[in-house]
Amino acid sequence: MKLTVLCDNCSRVGAYYLSESGVSYLLEDGDARILLDTGYTDVYVRNAEKLGIDLTNLTALVLSHGHDDHTGGMIHLPRQQAGKLPLYAHPNVFDRKFYQGEEIGAPYTQEAAAEIFDLHLSEGPVQLSERLWFLGAIPRVNDYENKTPVGERLVDGKWEPDFMPEDSALVYKGADGLTVISGCSHAGIQNITEYAKQVCGDERISGIIGGFHMPTVTRQTEETVRWLSKLRPKNLRPCHCTCFHARAAIHFAVPIGDTCVADVIEF
Ligand SMILES: [Zn+2]
Ligand SMILES: [Zn+2]
Q1: Selecting from 3.30.70.1450, 3.60.15.10, 3.40.50.300, 3.20.20.10, what CATH number does the domain 2-266 have?
Q2: pTM, 2 dp
Q3: Which residues lie near ion ligand 2 (Cβ < 5 Å)?
Q4: In 3-state terms, what secondary structure has residue 261?
Q5: pLDDT digits (tens, 9 = 90+) for 187-217
């Protein structure tokens, strides 16, 4: 599996790629060319062009959740050579979302998206390639993750606190264990990882890459550090919405890798 970072909050000095607060990863495994998330703007398309990566022949688009730093760039996705691109996500991914006076959901309604994409909306896990799964709905099991809503979500005509029921992730089943690839991990990175083990029937965690949604250091960070200290994945890369202090706290216990735009990560 080859993961290329097309969008992240960080870029490296001297490389001159564009960064923004968002996520977009290209996953290439055999014939599968899967895009996870599209960042906030067209940054991922411009970085792909500079990297010589063709985004017109993808095999699937996966949306980790509905927030616009992961879905906003959908409107810039180049037209596909093979017609409607399969899109995998949780059924609530197109819900309207509101935060601090602004709409922060996906740029398309479900109906508009269905005109452009071949929608596969699923609460259950979906196998995308021989070794890659979309996890669908993540069971919220422990008592310290997914406890704070992010704004509100429109449910049956009413605005309700948004606990992001659609938040999901991917898992790759490698020879030496599983690698979890998340967007923001609003469902909780421990909840996601423990569910990935169940779905794949494998207890070994080789890597975790993606946002851990830790804008500050809280009890969630402390519990996550405790859990990771036992798990000790060899390829640990909290990025995007994981603040410096949270990454430092994790790194102090378990060494982490840096993640920036244009990085190629193989596992
Ligand atoms: Zn988010
Ligand atoms: Zn995010």
Answers
A1: 3.60.15.10
A2: 0.97
A3: 69, 184, 241
A4: coil
A5: 999 999 999 999 999 999 999 999 999 999 9
